[in-house]
Design goal:
The chain is α+β, with helices and mostly antiparallel strands and about 110 residues long. It is about 40% helix and about 20% strand. The strands form two sheets. It has a two-stranded parallel ribbon. A two-stranded antiparallel sheet has the order 3-4.
């Protein structure tokens, strides 16, 4: 039997996401879910995260990839120096607004 660490980065990430989605939890914590994986794996992981959301699972996404955050999130909370500095909806969010909030500049 092969362990996840024996697979390539993208396949290992897909295994981890699949494992987390199949454990019966009501919340998925996805921290940097696509870091270091190829485009095909990114699309597969994004589809699985959105499917989980659509099936009623809560998803907490933590990512440094602003495009990923914007494309997958219904609501975005930004923390700067340990404090909540902003909340945006998917429709309101832009990379510029998120960058300002991440820098501690509130609008």
């Amino acid at each position: 039997m092969l362990t996840a660490r024996r697979y390539s980065g993208g396949n290992a990430q897909k295994i981890v996401v699949g494992r987390e989605l199949s454990c019966g939890s009501k919340v998925l914590v996805a921290a940097q879910p696509t870091r270091g994986v190829d485009v095909g794996a990114i699309e597969a992981i994004h589809r699985r995260i959105l499917q989980a959301r659509d099936q009623g699972m809560g998803v907490l996404l933590v990512s440094a990839d602003l495009n990923e955050v914007i494309s997958l999130s219904d609501r975005i909370l930004v923390i700067h120096e340990g404090h909540l500095v902003g909340e945006l909806t998917h429709e309101e969010a832009t990379e510029e607004q998120l960058g300002l909030l991440m820098g501690g500049i509130q609008h």
